[in-house]
Fold this sequence. Notes:
Layout: H1 7-16, E1 23-25, E2 28-30, E3 37-41, E4 48-53, H2 57-73, H3 81-97, H4 99-110, H5 114-135, E5 142-143, E6 150-158, E7 161-165, H6 171-184, E8 188-192, H7 199-211, E9 218-220, H8 225-234, E10 240-244, H9 247-259, E11 264-268, E12 274-277, H10 284-296, E13 308-312, H11 316-327, H12 348-364, E14 367-370, E15 374-375, E16 383-384, E17 387-390, H13 397-400, E18 407-413, H14 416-424, E19 428-429, E20 431-435, H15 439-448, E21 453-456, E22 471-472, E23 475-476, E24 489-497
Parallel strand pairs: 7-8, 7-10, 8-9, 10-11, 12-13, 12-20, 13-18, 17-18, 20-21
Antiparallel strand pairs: 1-2, 3-4, 5-6, 6-24, 11-23, 14-17, 15-16, 19-22
Helix pairs in contact: 2-8, 3-5, 3-7, 4-5, 4-7, 5-6, 10-11
Amino acid sequence: MNAKPDTTSWHERARALRIRNQAFIGGRYVDAASGATFDSFNPATGELLARVAACDEEDVNRAVAAARAAFRAGSWANLPPAKRKKVLQRFAELIKRNGEELALLETLDMGKPIRDSLGVDIPASVNCIQWYAEAIDKVYDEVAPTGPGTLALITREPMGVVGAIVPWNFPLLMAAWKIGPVLAAGNSLILKPSEKSPLTAIRVAELAIEAGLPAGVLNVVPGLGATAGKALALHMDVDCITFTGSTATGRAIMQYAGQSNMKRVSVECGGKSPNIVLADYPDLDKAAAAAAAAIFFNQGEVCSAGSRLLVQDSIKDAVLEKVQAISRTMQPGDPLDPATRLGAIVDEIQMKRVLSFVDAGHRDGAKLRFGGQRVRQESGGYFVEPTVFEGVHSSMTIAREEIFGPVLSAITFKTVDEAIEIANDVIYGLVAAVWTRDITTAHRVSRALRAGTVFINCYDADDITVPFGGFKQSGIGRDKSLHALEKYTELKTTWIDLS
């Protein structure tokens, strides 16, 4: 990518941007069969960005038929691994080459700062596709240790047609987490992006074709969750449904799978992640900086956000003072300004939801330490300032429900055992963190925390090589790493009698 444009340049490029707004089915852009559209708005201004094809059951049927035809033809599933690898490598390179356009689409559509779209989301998406491309010819099958008179082969085969429903908070990256392993395994894919941020998914579909992916292998059906998403999850010819989003919707997806053809299901759902700071940790500046980033990055619209800060009572004021000082450098600003660190909430509905939780905090008796207001109203956009409540108890709504906004609940504790009990006292178990200088304590707490990932003396450390997913109602299955391939393949045993 070229040198990053300045604020003026980003606004100029936004005005000149050509936005794709159709579905992508069978290798070409098409309108919804009904001709219906839905409006996509810029959350930083409230202005209309595009009218996007509103796919429904008929469009999903067309996409599934195209995906099934491509799978049966074997143009992708039966392609030698080395050739599939080259196609995905070219796909990743085209995403990188068009990175500034995709970053701009991401920021306009979802409201995140351009510095994050360009510096985090696009590079991580490229890396994900590249990594799974490289994995294609590195994963071996097995020979079972049977007796000398038999040969038992254990092979992985693509499942067939996979439906993927992805969220609005990291539109391209969450799509890449599905696209990479699904296609690496040889499947065909129907991708349903969130109606709140569908534009990058629509755009990358044609980059996949340009890279050499056969028509019908990757289809994109924008539309509402209640129509396109439900139709995909209920479809009798979809072999697997993978979903990232809210726990409530994840439950519905699982029900739809059971009501239809018992398709394979994986769901990565919500979180209410505890970030535990013990008094023995020597660098409170580092812990406070990580705590602020853990909840304010991406406007708090992160499933793994450290939304519960558990602080030992003797250091509570010192930590919160440092978090408050950092928050002053993260006030909401124009997402197209490269200096902005906190952008817009994705839409008015989500902004009102976040502010309703602020009201709930007041009603339940928590003390608002700072923030809690809508700001930049003159812009027409949806901005909420960094917010911290203290004096929060585990029974309060803001300590139990996923807010998905820049709202932090600070909870104090006296002992390590009390911290563990508080941390585990929610329905979620996505990630957790503990800050301590004592290695024994670190191991003890990490073992006791019911979470898919536990960070020690850091937060949100990340690499494509490690699996991501949660315990309890945070989901089933894992994204990222080689473990993701397990979700999109079937194990087959071939037993050969050699006698």
